[in-house]
């Protein structure tokens, strides 16, 4: 069995208030995809232009299918022009859960 993939992606966006509902829809759509164990979208309290996603995919192949599909491509096409700087993405392994 493959290791689960945990991702944290941090974004800073221009026009964040108008884009937040689109971003939220992408998070909801992502949760429906095969292999998505969770997909959280969070927003910074002090600087609402900053967002982060916290995701877990059952396999790396599930994540690759997610970023290769039409929904993700359309979402990324919308969000890319709004990045203040390149997103910071961290791939991680779970050390300890919420036991």
Automatic annotation (TrEMBL):
Domain ABM: 1-92
Signal peptide: none
InterPro entries to which the protein is assigned, alphabetical: ABM_dom, AI-2_Isomerase_LsrG, Dimeric_a/b-barrel
SUPFAM superfamilies registered for this protein in UniProt: Dimeric alpha+beta barrel (SSF54909)
Molecular function GO terms recorded: catalytic activity
Alphabetized Pfam families for the sequence: ABM
Name the record gives this protein: ABM domain-containing protein
Natural source organism: Neolewinella aurantiaca
């Amino acid at each position: 069995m493959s290791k689960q993939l945990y991702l944290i992606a941090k974004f800073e966006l221009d026009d964040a208030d108008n884009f937040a509902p689109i971003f939220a829809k992408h998070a909801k759509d992502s949760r429906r995809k095969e292999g998505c164990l969770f997909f959280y979208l969070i927003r910074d309290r002090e600087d609402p232009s900053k967002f982060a996603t916290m995701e877990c995919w059952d396999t790396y192949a599930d994540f690759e299918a997610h970023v290769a599909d039409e929904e993700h491509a359309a979402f990324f096409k919308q969000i890319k022009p709004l990045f203040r700087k390149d997103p910071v993405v961290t791939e991680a392994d779970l050390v300890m859960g919420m036991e």
